[in-house]
Amino acid sequence: MKQDETTRAEKFVVRFPPGMRDRIAQAARHSHRSMNAEIVARLQRSMVEWPGDLPRSEGCVPQGLEEGLLLDCFRRLPAEKRQALLALLI
Asked: Domain Arc-like DNA binding spans what residues (predicted)?
């Protein structure tokens, strides 16, 4: 980012849950980016894929993507929480 872009950039403070800062730092190193660039890249990617004009009568997850979203959330859970969830579902 150029100096004049940096001074015009909008700033926003974000509070991360425990451990997330370290995970972002690791991902940024892997991608050869700064932490800020890593966060912005990931946000931009998620916003491109997300439909911004969902009607209010529909759910927040686009139809047909529910299973993938659930699977993604499930995979990010710690092992003990995955087991607890499976116990509730089965």
From this structure: 9-47
Q: Which residue stretches of 50-78 are H helix?
A: 66-76
The residues, any chain, with a CB within 8 Å of residue 31's CB and separated by 6 or more, are: 38, 41
Query: Burial code of 7-27, b = ≥16 C-beta within 10 A, e = fewer?
Result: eeeeeeeeeeeeeeeeebeee
| Model confidence pLDDT, tens digit, residues 48-62 | 766 655 555 555 666
Q: Quote the CA–CA distance of 24 and 16 in Å, as a whole number.
A: 10
pLDDT per residue as tens digits for the range 6-35: 677 888 898 999 999 999 999 999 999 999
Say what the pTM is: 0.49
SS3 60: coil
CA distance 78 to 61: 23
